[in-house]
Design goal:
The chain contains 14 helices and 15 strands. The protein is α/β, with parallel strands linked by helices. Bound molecules: 2-acetamido-2-deoxy-beta-D-glucopyranose (4 copies).
């Protein structure tokens, strides 16, 4: 119970603090607030604005459970487009790369996750172990240099768990061709020769000198960070020890070549055997048996941020229902809480979406799902929590339908979705713009975020 007097004085302090905040922010020319409603309104000339202009394009870093750029917070509103390198490899489709960056940046998306692998397949980057197609590498160079033009940073994934674009099974095929006695695709995680193949690929990509701008990948701030593997699973060892050992070895290896960039594993986020009390958060009982372990895996030395994917339509039931939304909320909240309490790192929901092929699907549901993810992130952001951001699966430009697995969002054809994405970018940018605040006044970021929370609750 609060007595009237205390209530009055705390309200007064709230108002005074909020007024001060508004005045200072206006003075700092970072962001301003629309007092007519409870929604944050952002009034800067363009996304990124001065703080990301030209010479200040610097590496994303991590401070506690948040991302920072130039000492300012950096919350991620981003997307996936996995095929950029392959499209860039052909002059007739290269323009699609530019198109998707252009359309994404127009709604404020500023991070893109994409494949820096294509092993042994059509338009392979790596034709055989450590043998590269220079034209395809130049295509990846193009993707990296083009992203920068749109102020988009890239999360580059280094191998696939799945067979698409080669993956661990391609490494096993190479091993067998070299005469190794291999019995399972999961030998990828444990056989010394296959581990050496993977390391050679890591080394080749990280040390690549971009032919468009002469910048070595490992020094390029356009790269947000590296991802060890897309959705690693090691079903042959439900104890999780085999995958854990691989992550430990590879995280240190990546850091030995490139200590500057952030690193994530690429996990879907299932809770494993080390945390039996989290089993009920998993979408199903099978999830605990795939050899991954959200908390244990992310405690590995060298891993900077956590990931989780969100696919209720694939994990719970294909038919759309409210249960998908409820799952999304509790799944995200649990990972955000664990990132805060056990990992002290940001968590990025690196893939989420819904397939238009699902029974009961409509675009309203898709917007509701996206809105739920964004609200959950924002709720964390306001508290300075570990919800580091999210990446839509997936954004396509027009005319690439033949690559669509049902999840593609064509922004130019989906006005309502575009508006939701755009609004979220504006809201996050208000937090990301807490720059001059710190520069001019030397205040602690945490302090500022507290004030933001108060402001929104007024
Ligand atoms: C191949 O490895 C399996 C399991 O490790 C073993 O049982 C088998 O004898 C090996 N085969 C050869 C030809 O060495
Ligand atoms: C890259 O470096 C080479 C050799 O120093 C130089 O000839 C070339 O002009 C440079 N290219 C760019 C885009 O800076
Ligand atoms: C869209 O789908 C949801 C979930 O299946 C359903 O509740 C809603 O009525 C549908 N809306 C329209 C406009 O069809
Ligand atoms: C976000 O926080 C608000 C206020 O605390 C709450 O009402 C809402 O349910 C939360 N949204 C989600 C998606 O967690």
């Amino acid at each position: 119970m609060v007595n009237q007097e205390q209530n009055f004085s705390s309200k007064f302090l709230f108002l005074a603090a909020s007024f001060l905040l508004l005045v200072l922010l206006k003075y700092a020319n970072c962001a301003s607030f629309d007092e007519a409603g409870d929604q944050l309104a952002y009034s800067s000339t363009e996304y990124g604005g001065e703080m990301e202009g030209g010479e200040t394009w610097t590496m994303v870093q991590k401070s506690g459970n948040q991302f920072v750029v130039n000492g300012q917070p950096f919350y991620v509103n981003g997307f996936n487009t996995y095929w950029l390198m392959v499209f860039a490899a052909d002059q007739s489709t290269r323009g699609k790369v530019t198109e998707v960056f252009q359309q994404a940046s127009a709604v404020g998306l500023s991070v893109c996750r994409t494949w820096a692998f294509n092993d042994g397949q059509w338009r392979a980057l790596q034709k055989t172990p450590a043998v590269y197609d220079e034209d395809v590498f130049k295509a990846l160079d193009f993707v990296v240099s083009e992203a920068k033009k749109f102020k988009i940073r890239l999360i580059l994934s280094l191998v696939n768990n799945w067979e698409a674009y080669g993956g661990k099974s391609q490494y096993v095929k190479w091993g067998k061709a070299a005469g190794l006695n291999l019995t399972s695709d999961d030998d990828f995680f444990s056989h010394p020769t296959l581990k050496s193949y993977y390391k050679a690929h890591v080394k080749a990509v990280l040390n690549r000198v971009n032919t468009f701008n002469n910048m070595t990948y490992k020094d390029d701030p356009t790269i947000f960070g590296w991802e060890l593997m897309n959705e690693p699973r090691c079903e042959s060892d439900p104890s999780g020890d085999k995958l854990q050992a691989w992550i430990e070895e590879m995280a240190v290896y990546v850091k030995s070549i490139d200590p500057k960039h952030l690193l994530q594993i690429g996990l879907e986020g299932f809770y494993g055997v080390s945390t039996p009390n989290r089993a009920q958060v998993n979408p199903n009982s099978y999830a605990q048996q795939v050899g991954t372990d959200f908390i244990r895996n992310h405690q590995v030395l060298g891993v900077d941020f956590a990931s989780a994917h969100i696919y209720p339509d694939s994990w719970i039931s294909q038919s759309i229902s409210d249960a998908h939304i409820e799952f999304t909320k509790s799944w995200m909240q649990s990972h955000i809480d664990d990132a805060e309490n056990y990992l002290n790192m940001p968590v990025v929901f690196s893939e989420f979406g819904v397939s238009a092929k699902d029974p009961g699907y409509n675009s309203t549901f898709r917007d509701t799902l996206i809105g739920t993810v964004y609200t959950t992130i924002l709720n964390s952001t306001k508290k300075g929590g570990a919800g580091g951001g999210s990446l839509l699966w997936q954004v396509f430009p027009e005319g690439t339908d033949y690559m669509d697995d049902g999840y593609a969002i064509v922004l130019s054809k989906s006005l309502s979705t575009s508006n939701i994405v755009s609004l979220h970018s504006k809201r996050l940018n208000a937090f990301n713009s807490l720059c001059s605040w710190k520069c001019h006044w030397g205040c602690k970021k945490k302090h500022v975020l507290d004030n933001f929370q108060f402001h929104e609750e007024l």
